[in-house]
Design a protein that fits this description.
elongated
Length: 223
């Protein structure tokens, strides 16, 4: 039979389920730094220098992992933004692509992409946009995908190469948005992209698959 002393110890070790005790406490800046700090203190003193290193360097990979841990733990919102701001981790195109490729909810990726675009001394390029567009296509968020493609075509700071334009046309074609694909093609052609034969082939193939043979003839005469 359990004596009084034993019962007392058992009761003290029991886990409380009171609501106010189950809530997660908000971390202070110091606690956030400790959560995501690197084991090597000498390296953590100069985090900016690591971004000058090769992608294969383990210290570069460590910074990627810290970002990924933050995004996976906090999803997205004030806590994630605070953690990233406190740690002062540098945002570059390679890092943005890495975050977009991890297994998190698509809404988290969208919000992170928008947050990154507002960082000082950073602008999205065609590689980060295309990574997000592929994520949106995979999630079948075609409306958001088209809006993002429109942003790419209209953004004067983003270079749309013929190969990028081909990928945009193909993505919209797979989404059965043929009219919008043609609109994007001519917008890019009229503003900052000179289509190659490969780009034209992407448009023609899309039109043929949709049975729009008259349009095929129109596009073919432009080549």
């Amino acid at each position: 039979m359990m004596n009084i002393s034993a019962r007392s110890k058992f009761q003290k070790r029991s886990i409380s389920t009171l609501p106010h005790l189950c809530q997660r406490f908000k971390q202070t800046e110091k606690e956030i730094v400790q959560m995501f700090s690197e084991p090597n203190h000498e390296e953590s003193e100069k985090p900016q220098e690591k971004w000058k290193l090769s992608r294969k360097d383990p210290s570069v990979k460590m910074l990627d992992e810290r970002f990924i841990r933050i995004v996976k733990i906090f999803k997205w919102g004030p806590d994630a933004e605070k953690a990233l701001d406190v740690l002062k981790l540098k945002v570059d195109h390679r890092l943005v692509r890495s975050i977009l490729e991890i297994d998190v909810e698509i809404n988290v990726k969208i919000q992170f992409f928008k947050w990154a675009g507002k960082r000082r001394n950073f602008q999205h390029d065609s590689s980060t946009y295309m990574t997000l567009i592929r994520c949106l296509e995979e999630a079948r968020l075609y409306g958001e995908m088209y809006r993002t493609i429109q942003e790419v075509v209209r953004n004067t700071y983003v270079s749309v190469s013929p190969s990028v334009l081909s990928e945009l046309v193909k993505a919209l074609g797979r989404a059965k948005m043929v009219g919008k694909a043609l609109s994007v093609f001519y917008q890019a052609k009229g503003r900052k992209c000179k289509p190659t034969s490969s780009t034209y082939n992407s448009v023609i193939l899309m039109l043929m698959q949709e049975g729009q043979h008259e349009k095929v003839h129109e596009v073919y005469t432009e080549i």
